[in-house]
């Protein structure tokens, strides 16, 4: 059985306000590492901010 | 191995030298998890180490002369242009073609080179998917051309998985280089400080990752292969900034960029973490690279200007990790090559391996050992293999892929003269093919190609002459080599290539040792950090039998480059000559661990083990050397003969004694099973010595007076701490276990001897087996006695006398006095005699079926 990924588990990453987080883990890179779901979520978030 | 799933992840250029420190610091937890739950290994690359050639070898199990991908680009004679290599250039079926034929579904993402994508059962996202920018400004205006994905129906949903470099925020890039501030004065003139390169490489790999995760989530698959060039491209761009700081690199640039490579590995690990989270327990995962990347002293500060020069920083060893339901746990594997992957995948899916494949299944990684099945060739099989039925229209923009290759330094910018470009591409690929043959030690074919190349006009002949120079030195054809060296120096007035080493080799080969030494010393004075120079100097010193100097040279070479198998092998060889055998064994092992396919290292290991008296293992090492050598390994064969003679010749057993009592001595009664050891124990016990026994093994029909044994002896190879209790006592230890005694104590060993035929027959009878004499067992026992004899001579704390069983039964005073004198304690000889019961000596060759005290 394939595990179902829950984007909500990574909510803290998506809500991170510290975009210049120097830590390689987390920040918006963490979102990109999630693959297609992360990329879509990041694009949506960016649209909201605009 | 039932039908399970396999996820194969390619990390171009990933290297253990970067990975291990990151794992140690807890910064690559996903890979660490796989290593802990699976197997890991060095992955040996092929020559030349160019990615399109290597990843095609991974996918086909064949070397480039067979698969036909011979570089980054190729000539399109019809269109009179050069173009990136494509799936159409491949001459043999890839693993996904075979899986298609066998009814498996494969998803292949970004694999190099897979454009145009093949119509396989599953989805193929070609390596052009993430590189097609079509002069677009950003994601909103970024069409995905046809012909990049099979089937086309996936085009729409995968289109949005691409990330455009212009989408990348500065903050995302800054995560890799946190101290970068474009406002700083000293950085204003430095273009963009690598920001664009980073964002482009990152965007392309995020695109691959997003497409792969989309397919993992939304499709059914049996096999999935995903290729990332992230680490390779980041290393090409930023390895020069990685610690330790290279000479001449300004501090502020070093500070800004020093963590980029490590951060790239961490991001790759984050992507792996996501992949692992998406597969179930039925999936075997393989993560591997095609080569490593120099991160220390061998980094090239100023890259020479010739095609594919950046590949000079590729290291011989990449990495390999596998974990999953079929994979062993916690083991390191040895001797892996890129060509082994396809045969391994076929074996995992219970399919036969093509006999025309150059690789072999990595059987050591599997829990279950299954016999490998073979067919002559998958290429000869009729049927549907998901291949192109007609040449697809190439609608794509090769230009952008070409530009990327130019940016990375893999190819030169094409000339205005198209014919010149085509000629150069053809020559480069022929040169690469020659290097493939060189790697396969097919010198004749390589030479033929190189001879053709040096006749070419209007191309740079230097690389071909260099190759011929190295080839002829390998062949020990020093006269021809000297000619090429002279030719090269004539071709280039300001000669840019390092030829010190090859010049020294020619001088050594022609007996001019003094001149060779002058050349090497001069080169070392200029480049003391070049390990190869120290290695050559060591060889020179070895030739003169200056072993101590050779040792020092090799230690310097290893200090500079500690994972070079040749250096460790030669140091082991030198240490054997210096009689430092244990140290020699250590270096021989390091060498073999680095390159298993290294007959000389196995031979040296054999030499060292033989000197240490470990004849059995020495023989195995010599046999391995002989097996690995493509031609007959005469020295190894002779060494095996010598060992066999030593082991099987008539054994001359000599006592090693000092007739005096040693403080806290341990008296050991030993011998082969059924050679009278129990009788000797009983006699010593009666005579006044205290036996170390737990009486666990009770008297029986074979030994009615009891065995006087101590159970922990049986596991002495795991734990010998109990020997402390044996001090001032007598304990029985059978011959094969003597080697595991601790050197911390002094031993007085009374070793029982008996006609070997009688020993074997007695054992056979005790086991209730046939009365025929197994000759092999007799030979084995002979070897055992020889090993004890060598052990006795080698161990300073061991004294040993041989006592013949028959003489003991006769109870002669001389025999008993010899024993008491040896033990050094007054024993009651009469009581010792009383323990003898001659009626129990039943297993003479003519014996009847009765019991005895012979064990």
Cross-sheet strand order for the largest sheet of chain B: 7-6-5-8-1-9-12-2-13
User: What's the number of structural domains of chain B?
Assistant: 3
Give, in order, the helices and strands of chain A.
Answer: HHH
| Poorly predicted regions of chain A | 1-25
Binned, the helix content of chain A reads: 40-55%
Described by its quaternary structure, the protein is heterodimer
Rg on CA atoms of chain B, Å: 34 Å
Number of domains of chain A: 1
Shape of chain B: elongated
**How would a textbook summarize the main sheet of chain A?**
none
Q: Which chain pair shows the most residues in contact?
A: A-B, 25 and 33 residues
Q: What's the short version?
A:
The complex is a heterodimer of chains A (50) and B (855). With 50 residues, chain A is an all-alpha fold.
SSE topology sketch:
The complex is a heterodimer of chains A (50) and B (855).
Chain A: H1 11-14, H2 27-33, H3 36-49
Helix pairs in contact in A: 2-3
Chain B: E1 5-11, H1 16-24, H2 29-36, E2 38-44, H3 51-60, H4 64-67, E3 73-76, E4 81-84, H5 95-101, E5 106-109, E6 122-125, E7 149-150, H6 155-159, H7 170-174, H8 195-218, E8 223-228, H9 230-238, H10 251-257, H11 260-278, E9 283-288, E10 292-293, E11 314-315, E12 317-323, E13 331-337, H12 341-348, E14 353-354, E15 374-375, H13 398-408, H14 418-439, H15 443-453, H16 462-474, H17 478-491, H18 500-509, H19 513-526, H20 531-543, H21 547-560, H22 565-577, H23 581-594, H24 599-611, H25 615-628, H26 634-648, E16 666-671, H27 677-687, E17 730-732, E18 747-753, H28 756-766, H29 775-794, E19 798-804, H30 805-810, H31 813-823, H32 829-834
Parallel strand pairs in B: 1-8, 1-9, 2-13, 5-6, 5-8, 14-15, 16-17, 16-18, 18-19
Antiparallel strand pairs in B: 2-12, 3-4, 6-7, 9-12, 10-11
């Amino acid at each position: 059985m394939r595990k179902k990924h829950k984007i909500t588990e990574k909510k803290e990453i998506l809500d991170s306000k510290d975009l210049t987080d120097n830590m390689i883990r987390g920040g918006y890179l963490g979102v990109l590492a999630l693959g297609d779901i992360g990329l879509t979520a990041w694009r949506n978030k960016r649209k909201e901010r605009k | 191995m039932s039908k399970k799933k396999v996820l194969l992840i390619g990390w171009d250029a990933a290297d253990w030298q970067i990975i291990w420190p990151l794992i140690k610091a807890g910064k690559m937890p996903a890979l660490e998890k796989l290593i802990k739950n699976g197997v890991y290994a060095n992955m040996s690359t092929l020559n030349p180490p160019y990615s399109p050639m290597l990843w095609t070898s991974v996918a086909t199990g064949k070397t480039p002369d067979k698969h036909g991908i011979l570089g980054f680009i190729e000539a399109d004679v019809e269109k009179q242009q050069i173009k990136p290599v494509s799936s159409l250039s491949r001459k043999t079926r890839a693993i996904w073609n075979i899986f298609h034929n066998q009814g498996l579904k494969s998803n292949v993402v970004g694999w190099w080179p897979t454009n145009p994508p093949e119509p396989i059962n599953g989805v193929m996202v070609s390596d052009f998917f993430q590189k097609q920018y079509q002069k677009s400004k950003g994601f909103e205006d970024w069409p995905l051309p046809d012909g990049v994905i099979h089937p086309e129906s996936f085009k729409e949903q995968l289109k949005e998985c691409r990330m455009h470099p212009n989408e990348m925020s500065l903050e995302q890039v800054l995560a890799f280089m946190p101290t970068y501030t474009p406002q700083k004065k000293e950085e204003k003139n430095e273009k963009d400080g690598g920001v664009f390169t980073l964002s482009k490489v990152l965007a392309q790999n995020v695109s691959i990752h997003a497409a792969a995760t989309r397919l993992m989530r939304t499709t059914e698959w049996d096999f999935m292969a995903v290729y990332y060039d992230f680490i390779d491209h980041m290393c090409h761009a930023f390895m020069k900034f990685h610690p330790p700081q290279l000479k001449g690199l300004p501090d502020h640039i070093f500070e800004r960029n020093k963590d980029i490579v490590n951060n790239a590995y961490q991001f790759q690990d984050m992507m792996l973490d996501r992949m692992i989270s998406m597969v179930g327990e039925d999936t075997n995962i393989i993560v591997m690279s095609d080569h490593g990347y120099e991160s220390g002293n061998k980094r090239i500060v100023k890259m020479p200007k010739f095609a594919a020069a950046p590949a000079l920083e590729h290291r011989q060893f990449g990495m390999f990790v596998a974990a999953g339901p079929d994979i062993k746990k916690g083991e390191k594997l040895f001797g892996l090559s890129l060509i082994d992957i396809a045969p391994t995948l076929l074996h995992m899916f219970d399919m036969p391996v093509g006999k025309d494949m150059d690789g072999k299944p990595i059987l050591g990684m599997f829990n279950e050992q299954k016999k490998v099945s073979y067919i002559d060739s998958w290429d000869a099989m009729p049927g549907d293999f998901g291949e192109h039925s007609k040449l697809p229209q190439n609608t794509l923009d090769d230009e952008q892929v070409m530009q990327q290759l130019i940016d990375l330094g893999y190819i030169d910018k094409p000339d205005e003269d198209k014919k010149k470009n085509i000629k150069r591409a053809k020559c480069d690929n022929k040169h690469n093919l020659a290097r493939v043959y060189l790697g396969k030690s097919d010198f004749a074919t390589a030479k033929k190609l190189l001879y053709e190349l040096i006749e070419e006009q209007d191309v740079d002949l230097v690389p071909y002459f260099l190759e011929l120079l190295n080839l002829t030195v390998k062949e020990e054809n020093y006269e021809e080599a000297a000619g090429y060296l002279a030719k090269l120096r004539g071709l280039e007035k300001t000669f840019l290539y390092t030829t010190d080493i090859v010049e020294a080799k020619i001088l050594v080969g022609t007996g001019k040792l003094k001149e060779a030494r002058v050349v090497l010393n001069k080169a070392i004075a200029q480049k003391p950090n070049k390990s190869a120079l120290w290695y050559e100097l060591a060889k020179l010193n070895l030739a003169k039998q200056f072993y101590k100097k050779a040792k020092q040279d090799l230690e310097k070479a290893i200090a500079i480059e500690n994972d070079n198998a040749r250096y460790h092998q030669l140091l082991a060889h030198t240490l054997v000559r210096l009689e430092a055998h244990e140290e020699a064994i250590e270096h021989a092992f390091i060498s073999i661990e680095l390159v298993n396919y290294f007959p000389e290292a196995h031979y040296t290991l054999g030499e060292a083990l033989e000197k240490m008296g470990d004849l059995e293992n020495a023989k195995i090492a010599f046999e391995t050397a002989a097996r690995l050598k493509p031609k007959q390994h005469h020295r190894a064969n002779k060494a095996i003969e010598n060992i066999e003679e030593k082991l099987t010749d008539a054994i001359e057993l000599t006592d090693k004694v000092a007739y005096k009592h040693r403080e806290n001595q341990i008296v050991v009664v030993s011998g082969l099973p059924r050679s009278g050891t129990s009788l000797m124990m009983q006699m010593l016990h009666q005579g006044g010595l205290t036996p170390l026994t737990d009486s666990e093994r009770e008297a029986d029909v074979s030994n009615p007076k009891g065995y006087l044994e101590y159970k922990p002896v049986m596991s002495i190879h795991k734990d010998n701490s109990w020997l402390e209790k044996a001090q001032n006592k007598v304990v029985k230890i059978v011959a094969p276990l003597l080697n595991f005694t601790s050197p911390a104590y002094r031993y007085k060993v009374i070793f029982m001897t008996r006609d070997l035929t009688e020993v074997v027959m007695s054992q056979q009878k005790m086991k209730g087996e046939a009365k025929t004499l197994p000759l092999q067992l007799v030979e084995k026992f002979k070897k055992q006695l020889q090993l004890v004899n060598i052990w006795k001579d080698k161990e300073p704390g061991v004294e040993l006398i041989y006592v013949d069983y028959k003489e003991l039964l006769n109870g002669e005073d001389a025999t008993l006095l010899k024993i008491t004198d040896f033990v050094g304690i007054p024993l009651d000889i009469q009581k010792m005699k009383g323990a003898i019961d001659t009626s129990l000596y039943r297993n003479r060759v003519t014996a009847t079926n009765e019991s005895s005290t012979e064990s």
